[in-house]
Amino acid sequence: MLTVEILVSAALGLATVLAVCTGLVVRFKSPQPRQREESENYFLCIDEKHERQRLGSLSDEPTVDLSIIVPAYNEEERLPVLLKDIREYVTARRQSEPKFSYELIIMDDGSRDKTVDVAMDFARTHKMRELKAVRHVINRGKGGAVTQGIMCSLGRYIMFCDADGATRFSDIDALLAQAK
């Protein structure tokens, strides 16, 4: 009996050591997001101040129900269609749930076109104060844009979608219901 107890104790000890070592390897060997340039710590929006504002952080307390991240590189043509779809979704959602809150973060990934201008024009035209546009100085790729968008999100739930319209916002409620 004593031998079985010793073997079980040794196995548990070995499993604990392996778990700790695995955790340390993952923590210290996983790639870290590139540091932001100073100008990338701010977003544009249409508020009373009409100035850039400092981004939040994923580690901050959530202040909205849903963060929607849109990585965008040269999307001036396709972005208005997506923004219209998002606007229709949140308008309908607020009719059924008046306290629903969101932020829409357009992560412009070093575009050479007028992606940010199109987003800001849409926000002004439709009075979308929840739209935030962040400009990357250099192109980080889709993964980098999504990562940076998530890192500055303030939502209880965070999602991202591409500007190509592949995500239908009418399906989002089913996704959120499953997440709860």
Characterise the protein shown here.
This protein has 180 residues and is of the alpha/beta class. 43% of the residues lie in helices and 17% in strands. It is built from five helices and six strands; from the N terminus they run αβββαβαβαβα. The strands form two sheets. It has a four-stranded parallel beta sheet with strand order 5-4-3-6, sandwiched between helices. The termini are far apart. The model has no long low-confidence stretch (mean pLDDT 86).
Features:
single chain, 43% helix, four-stranded parallel β-sheet, elongated, 6 strands, 180 residues, 5 helices, two-stranded antiparallel sheet, alpha/beta
Which class do the helix and strand fractions yield?
alpha/beta
- CA-based gyration radius: 21 Å
Q: How many H/I helices? A: 5
The residue fraction in helices comes out at 40-55%
Average pLDDT over all residues: 86
| Total beta strand runs | 6
Sheet with most strands: strand arrangement: 5-4-3-6
Task: Report the sheet-strand fraction.
Answer: 15-25%
Characterize the overall form: elongated
Distance between the termini: 47 Å
Largest sheet: 4 strands, parallel
Element string (H = helix, E = strand): HEEEHEHEHEH
Unreliable segments (pLDDT under 50, ≥5 consecutive)? none
